[in-house]
Batch of 2 targets.
Target 1
Amino acid sequence: MSALPTRRPLGLPGWGGGVALALLLAAAASAVVALLYDTAGAWATAQILVPLGLTTVLVTQLLVHRRLQLGGLRRQAALLGVLVAGQLAVGVALFVSLMFLSTHDAIFTALIAGYASALGLWSARRLGREAMADVDAIRGTLDAVGKGRRDVRTGVAGDNEIARLAGEVDAMVSMLDNVERARHTLIAGVSHDLRTPITALRLLAEAIDDDIADVETRRRYAARMGTHVRALGALIDDLFELTRLERADLAMTMEQIDLAELVEETVAAMQPAAEERMVLVSALRAERGDFARANPEKLQRVLFNLIQNAIRHTPPDGTVTVRTVRVDGGFEVEVADTGVGIPEEQRDQIFQPFFRGDSSRTQDGAGLGLAISRAIVEAHGGRIWLAPSEAGARVRFLLPSG
Ligand SMILES: Nc1ncnc2c1ncn2[C@@H]1O[C@H](COP(=O)(O)OP(=O)(O)O)[C@@H](O)[C@H]1O
Ligand SMILES: [Mg+2]
């Protein structure tokens, strides 16, 4: 890991700038004295201010160079306070002694200067403490996150640099939490879905091994084993596809495609499966020559998943309709069916990996189809959602035309 280069070396520019500022301000103050009183006063003012200012710049420069050895921000703030107060005290003392003020005036001036610096120190401390409490909150949060907790937040509000940093820390913790939850669900789903067919395979293998099984029975078991192995293969392919989609850069393989043609092609390919279930599948013709930028294989995979789901959840004599419309910023494709529909309480979940509704438990399919479709659509810069519908399901996705 390498640190990002954010620190500039503190060299001569700051130093030269400080000296220039000290001299300029001293000259300005002397000029004011010259205008109001006389040149002797102006000269005395310059004699006091110039050494004082230069010393301050020198001490500041030393502190800046030694910043890393100065200790915590609290100590740095305290040093700053001491520097300001010290300067004020020395300045007042010099003015009192050089300007030949009356003792009476001198005492008053010293008292006011002392009072102002004491209160100044208090304000600096007070403000510093508030800021440090925020820094401590951020450190505490990061500490807890490092120890594995994900339910912690800094709780720092406001509109300053520290609050923005805290906001970024909070956002990072939320994201970490979500990613870990998703991974957890995925792993739980994978283990569950692997266990079921593997148990079945083990039982079938034992049954085949049994001496009393005749040839015909063994052949039947072997055929069943084949089905399970194919399902396992499909599951692993889907998982592989899903993880690859999360990393892959689809933009590399995008091309101009005729959307209407792709939809018609996919619908035609699904006809046999639909006929088998006596469901009528049709594409509502979009304008030909509606070109979209997409990866044709991946987009076809989305259409295939949606149409397959629609066919599976639609009883005989039902219909599945694929409709493409041009909308602001791209195309919307909708796959609507007249089937059982999706229960209200499942609407948020169906795009999650491994989610399957009860009606699908007995069918094959690992509950990855919609998750894969969502990953593909999002990789195209679009989004996919469930549109409201009276009867049946309506899954719709937006494909941006950019
Ligand atoms: N057209 C549909 N009608 C009713 N339910 C659907 C439809 N499409 C998806 N679903 C629900 O969403 C779940 C997830 O779908 P999907 O991710 O494709 O997984 P799978 O098809 O493997 O079950 C399905 O199990 C089903 O409960
Ligand atoms: Mg499916």
Note: Residues 181-247 form a domain with the Helix Hairpins fold (CATH 1.10.287).
Target 2
Amino acid sequence: MSKIVLGGGIGGLSAAYYLRKKLPHEQIILIEGSSRTGGWIKSSRQVEGYIFEQGPRTLRLQGPKGENTLKLIDELNLGSLIKPIPSNHPAAINRMIYANGKLYSMPSSFWSIFKKTPPFSKPIVRYLLNDLTAPAKVIPERDESIYSFAERRFGKEIADYAISPLICGICAGDAKRVSVKFLMENLFDSEQRYGNISKGILYEVLFARNRKPKVIETDLFKRAKKEKWSVYSLSDGLETLPMRLEQALRKNNVDIKLNLSCAAVEFYKSKVQIYTSSGDKILTNHLISSLPAHVLGNLLVGHTKLKQLLQSITCVNVCVINLHFKKKVLNTEGFGFLVPPKENIPILGVTFDSCCFPHGEGTVLTVMMGGYWFDKYFGNNPTESDLLQTALNQIQTILGISEKPDTHKINILPNCIPQYVVGHNNKVDLINKYITANHLPLSLCGSSYYGVGINDVIMSAKNVIDNL
Ligand SMILES: Cc1cc2nc3c(=O)[nH]c(=O)nc-3n(C[C@H](O)[C@H](O)[C@H](O)COP(=O)(O)OP(=O)(O)OC[C@H]3O[C@@H](n4cnc5c(N)ncnc54)[C@H](O)[C@@H]3O)c2cc1C
């Protein structure tokens, strides 16, 4: 009996890849509802040669998850296509925020934390020291918003100008709703255990050195360390990664079925019945779902409690507008800027793509809008021309760009980024407990559970297959 993977985004493709490695002779079917694999990863090369990334644009190297992705890239022979941004490049050093009508560079070096860098009214080190004296607060629910945690430990300016725009940049979400465990689980645990973060860090340094996970020392990883990459992409855009994964899967007899949606999932004794959009039924003894949690929840027959838990992990809509200008229109170099929500303007941020990865004489920018605030600014049926006009007005005000772009692409991505609101980890625990207690032959991976970045998603796929 075949194993079935639902969804052909990077989560489903990676799951099928690790599954094929683990079970070389098993029949594997991957079911993807759309006409292509890759999910939100979509790169479109324009005739002049520059790339519009319509979803994600860079991968991070840091940590075991970053190392794991690099290993996958190595195994797929994509190493020669890597376009790194080295850590001394302006795009690695200069990340900005737009506050009080101005662009400000965020502190990026050890020494810069000792200087006053507006919009912060004090040197960053003073906010960090605040942790030593701020009273500890035991949170009985063992979770709170990342905004309230940052405000309690470091002060309101850090919560407003550092954490809130960061959360907009990572998940287009509201730091006042997103769980502290989304990014700062260790810091939160330190405070809960030791009374402040500093004591927790000291304890880790003194007693927990050996707990560092082993690094996957591939040649590519050594090259990345030597050349000091901060983030990277691939020369034909990030979509090269899912495209190459798809090729590798087809070559290894994974049956990838495009344009076939899963319409319902029914557990039947120790098996699972998949009902497809073409009216067929497929029986499997194990289902791996990489679908967004709420989508899987809607497909479940019965199992009301599991259904409700899955449906409660919701996503936000994001509008991504790629712009190309024939000449140089930026007078500052950097990765781009993010906008703290308290500024109340209708964009999340802008990336300076042609600064990160230069191509020819022109300028490529991407404006991100919406997220948690999509309905507030755009309602539920905005026109493309209104969205474009909003983006152009904002880059004129903030960056002084009055030229009209010669090319643009407007992409409305519905329900594209899950929101790990307060209580998220608890929900995921309950989901896993339900699956175990009811002996359901179901494994879950993808961006809804253990992190929203590509590295997190690939690792979630590897983990479910390792644990199968
Ligand atoms: C605008 C944006 C910018 C981002 N930037 C970055 C970045 O710079 N770096 C980074 O690391 N991450 C970034 N991310 C996050 C990253 O792109 C995603 O987390 C990741 O691509 C999600 O992969 P996935 O496989 O979990 O889900 P998806 O990509 O959503 O894949 C799920 C797949 O399931 C299919 N599907 C849905 N329903 C059904 C059904 N009923 N039957 C069959 N198939 C179905 C869909 O068509 C889709 O192909 C960004 C995300 C967005 C939206």
Note: DSSP finds 17 helices and 20 strands in the chain.
